[in-house]
Amino acid sequence: MLVLMQDWPLLCHRVIDHAATHHANRMVVSRSVEGPTHTTNYAGIRARALKVAQRLDRDGIRLGDRVATLAWNTWRHLEAWYGIMGVGAIYHTVNPRLFADQIVWIINHAEDRIVLTDLTFVPLLEKLADKLPTVERYIVLTDAAHMPPTALRNAVAYETWIAEADGDFAWKSFDENTAAGMCYTSGTTGNPKGVVYSHRSNILLALTANEPDAFGLSSRDIVMPVVPLFHANGWSIAFSAPIAGASLVMPGMKLDGASIHEMLTAYRVSCTAAVPTIWLMLLQHLEATGGALPYLKRVVIGGSACPRAMAQKFENIYGVQVIHAWGMTEMSPLGSLCTLKPEYASLTGDAKLDVLVKQGHPPFMIEMKIEDDAGRRLPWDGKSSGRLMVRGPTVARAYYKDDSDILDAEGFFDTGDVATMDPYGYMQITDRSKDVIKSGGEWISSIELENLAVGHPKVAEAAVIGVRHPKWDERPLLVLVMKKGESIGKNDILDYMRGKVANWWIPDDVVFVDEIPHTATGKIQKTTLRERFKDYRLPTA
Ligand code: AMP
């Protein structure tokens, strides 16, 4: 029997239509790159997104064309996303923190026809433009008054460009499986890989993100995505907030503790999301100034593991619910979120923190399994750790212009993470498969040791890598950055860690550094650290 329901393709521009119709006045406030705060609402975003679409159409941008953005989270970036998708083109978020060569490689690989850029990145693009033959035009996300003189091809100020359109334009229509967006993995080895999201996958993921056991957004929420739109599809917030009718606070380019605190407080943000590095800066700022978080209800922490001390401070000192989340660019990106099921809901104190530092349980539409190296499924006992595999309609099945088969026989994608699953279905990442330390044939979780070390009040950041050892193959080396003005003896930190993990996990040595290198998305760059310490002689060797 054929279905008698309406055929209503899940197209992303319907999201902004909905928000502009039913939540028209909900504010979208941004810290502009030029400086002042800018306020608009969903009706305003939609009206100007239509102008973007009209203007792109006039510039000859067609279904399937790629339009890059190198931009911070602001209202203009949001309008651009919806405008690009509304003509059936593909927003391609480029992470400006990547190496210049990677940016060139990515833009050429995607064959972007237009680049929309913030003022911040004009000097960078001027250096790279000669190597970007596919780019026909650069649109600078600013107004005529702030437009710098530039030799970038066909450069125009965004405000001048959209002022040439009246917005009397109808979104294009197409199949919901049409590509809507594109994001490259930061690829620590080899070239970055392009992940392509569809209109359908974006909307399915946004609906997931809004579930009560996920971000739980509603029209009463004021959401600040500190996570940039260029990091893993902006964690879906550009779609989930307008679907829910939640207000948006866009922090722009100032992501230090004081600036984030100012936005959280001034706009009474109720829910926010970012990587742990950002929250570390905020917590340090709060500790230094005695500040509070009176309005914030939920903080989403993902991209790297949430340290226990961070969860403890948000929950117990500032009264903010921690939602630890895990995902990947390849997963649009949400894979799991840690909210408390009834089995855990009554926990308090340390027992509760033990759960909150897990990466959580997958929402509907994500299937998970863990496997050993021989491909056998491992039990969900909270102890057996193995390769984490995922499947679902918001998970990539292939990379852009790449024939390699990335799914197993059952259609699961290998995340490259190593994890345990507990009897209630809570997943906990123990490591990246490349980072796990193999000592005497057993595995040591670098993440667990790092989280333990940053729990020490004098430690600012910690990384643990495996260093060659003649007897054990590899042994852990703890790399520490101390908080300003603090110092500590090697044995002090090791003694602090003792008793909290198995004795044979305790690192063989400690080194102090001024800075730990990070990837373009704020993760610890283990490859660089391993290279730097590849000839390190452990005292136990
Ligand atoms: P990306 O595609 O840049 O978001 O990177 C995805 C990878 O980041 C995952 O495969 C994990 O290794 C790591 N990751 C993301 N979230 C978490 C988390 N909450 N805890 C530990 N690792 C995480």
Descriptive overview:
This protein has 541 residues and is of the alpha/beta class. The protein folds into 3 domains: 13-211, ANL, N-terminal domain (Rossmann fold, 3-Layer(aba) Sandwich); 254-433, ANL, N-terminal domain (Rossmann fold), CATH 3.40.50.12780; 437-532, GMP Synthetase, Chain A, domain 3. It is built from 15 helices and 24 strands. It has helices at residues 13-22, 42-58, 75-86, 100-110, 122-128, 158-163, 199-209, 237-244, 257-266, 276-289, 308-317, 349-356, 446-453, 490-497, 526-532; strands at residues 27-31, 37-41, 66-70, 90-93, 114-117, 137-140, 156-157, 179-184, 194-198, 222-225, 247-250, 271-274, 298-302, 321-327, 334-338, 367-371, 386-391, 413-421, 427-432, 437-439, 442-444, 459-469, 473-482, 509-512. It has an 8-stranded mixed β-sheet, with helices on both faces. It has a 7-stranded mixed β-sheet with strand order 7-6-5-3-4-8-9, sandwiched between helices. Strands 16-17-18-19 form a 4-stranded antiparallel β-sheet. The longest helix is centred in the first third of the chain and has 17 residues, at 42-58. It is globular and about 70 Å long. The model has no long low-confidence stretch (mean pLDDT 96). The structure holds adenosine monophosphate. The site of adenosine monophosphate (AMP) has 21 residues, from strand 14, strand 18 and strand 19.
